[in-house]
Structure formats: C-alpha cells, structure tokens
Design a protein that fits this description.
With 306 residues, the protein is an all-alpha fold. The protein is built from 14 helices and two strands, in the order ααααααααααααααββ. It has a two-stranded antiparallel ribbon with strand order 1-2.
C-alpha cells in the first residue's frame, strides 16, 4: 500500500465514523455513552480475537509485554478524550461541539513539536485552512462558547492528538489487527469501570429492544472492528498529521448526512451558508495535505519532509 492508497483508506474510515450519528440516533438517550462504548468494544474484541486468533497469538508472542502496555496506554487515552468530549458536549449543541472537537487539527502540530517531531510547511497550511473552516462554521456561536465547555474540549483535543501520534508510532511496529483487538479490550474494561461507577445497575438499566441490539452490533462490527482496524492498517503508511487532517472530514460527511437522509433515520439539519463555506475550507485543507507535490518525500519520526 502506497501513501495515496493509505490516505484514501483513511477517508473511507472517516466516512464510516461519520455514520455514528445515524447509529446512535437509534439508541435512547437513557443509555449512557460508557455503556455503549463498553458493549461495542467488547463485541468488537471478541469478533477480532475469534477470527484472527492465530495472528493475535503470534504478535503477542513476538512483542509480549511491550504490546500489552502500549495498548493499555492507547485504551486509556481513547477513553480519556472521549470522556472529556462527552462532558464538554454538555455545554454545546451537537453541531458546535463537533466543529469544536475538530480543533484536534490545530493542537496536533504543537503536540508533534513537543515530542520533537518535524512538522512540514504544507501541514501548517492545511491546519490554517481547517482552522479557518472551523471558525467560519461556528460563526457567531464563538462568542457564546462556555469557558468550561471550551476547556474540556481543548483538553480532549490534546489527549486525542497524543493518542493519534502514539497510535501512528505503534502502528508501524505491530500487527494492525492485534493492536485493534487489544485496544478494544482495554477500552471496554475502562469503560465498564466508569459505567459501573455511574450506573451500578449496568445491563439492567438498558431498555433492551431489537433496535438497540442491532445498533450495538452494527456499531461494534462496522465502526470498531472494521473501521478502527483499517485505520491502524493505513497509519503504517501515513503520518499523524495527515491522519488528523483527514479525520476533520468527518464533520463534513456528518453535515451531508444531516441534509440528505430522511427524517426517519436522523433529525434533518440543513447546513447554514457559513457551515457550507467552513466545510469547503476543511476539504481544501485535507486535499492540500493529501496531494503529492514534486520531489521525493521521506518519513522522519512519523512526519514527512521534502
């Protein structure tokens, strides 16, 4: 797989992730997000371990304790930024919160520099375009952003940026399916602990129905087992900066779903002109990061240089 193919895979992953809004619309608000995270990651880990048991055992035998500790770190970071995002979202409407969480693109170069990783000029240009798109899409809502919500979102973006950088590093050293399996295991364990603390009734508190069960299994297979594994596989050939900027396309896809899908699937939400312009700037930033300019490129500490 070459760099362009890997970036196209990341776009497919982002497209898959954007459908979460449709799946979650089928799950009642009374079901805590930590319950959904636990159940879906537990199912995904079982699917991956059962289908690729030999591959997982071989990688575990090869990497041993190092693999487990790295996946534990990634699982903790994953739960950390999702928790900050969920609590930060309480201070925003869904659209504003989603655009605000895209600030991971802005935070990532700073995180890369802190970790002594190079950041190319093209990446900075892409970041400026994506940031301009976020600001344009938020429009007048910026003045009304709650400070507490913004701080929680900012912390979530920082943790997510660290997660992406470390995942990008580890993806080059370990088998993609094994990484995905163990990340799902640790995310499910940590999520269950939080779920039990907040809602000791756990499974008894869920209003089970065929719709909820189907939604959980679809999310487990399609979003986690498939998309997460494909994401890790693609990151073997991409940089953390490319991945993060492409991830910003998720909000663009979500806007499209909200505009074109029937109200039986999702609450119809027609994008405002500012949101359309903002989405266009985010797409432009992603295209600039993906397009190969003249000259050879080489990976240096996970970042590309001319």
């Amino acid at each position: 797989m070459n760099r362009l193919q890997a970036n196209l895979c990341l776009i497919c992953v982002t497209l898959c992730w954007s459908t979460e809004v449709i799946i979650f619309a089928c799950i009642p608000d009374s079901v805590l997000p930590f319950a959904t995270t636990f159940i879906c990651n537990a199912i995904a880990s079982v699917i991956l371990a059962a289908c690729f048991s030999k591959r997982v055992k071989n990688e575990l035998h090869r990497s041993g304790k190092k693999l487990v500790l790295r996946c534990l770190l990634l699982g903790a970071l994953n739960c950390g930024y999702n928790t900050l995002y969920l609590y930060g979202l309480n201070y925003f409407d869904v659209s504003t919160g989603a655009f605000t969480f895209s600030m991971t693109v802005v935070v990532l170069p700073v995180v890369l520099l802190t970790m002594r990783k190079a950041v190319g000029a093209k990446t900075w240009l892409s970041v400026v375009l994506v940031l301009s798109g976020i600001v344009c899409a938020l429009g007048g809502n910026i003045a009304g952003i709650h400070p507490t919500g913004f701080i929680l979102m900012l912390l979530g973006c920082i943790v997510r940026a660290v997660f992406i950088v470390k995942l990008n590093d580890f993806a080059r050293e370990h088998d993609s399916i094994t990484l995905s399996t163990f990340i799902s295991i640790f995310v499910s364990v940590i999520s269950f602990g939080i779920w039990f603390f907040l809602q000791p009734e756990t499974f008894g508190a869920i209003p089970w129905s065929s719709t909820i069960i189907a939604s959980l299994f679809i999310h487990a297979y399609f979003i986690i087992a498939f998309a997460q594994t494909l994401n890790i596989f693609a990151q073997k050939r991409t940089t953390a900066a490319e991945s993060t900027i492409i991830y910003a396309l998720e909000i663009v896809f979500s806007l499209i779903w909200g505009a074109v899908l029937p109200e039986t699937l999702i609450d119809r939400a027609i994008p405002t002109p500012f949101q359309i312009v903002g989405a266009a700037l985010i797409v432009a930033g992603s295209v600039i990061e993906i397009v190969e300019f003249k000259g050879k490129r080489r990976l240096v500490n996970g970042a590309e240089k001319q």
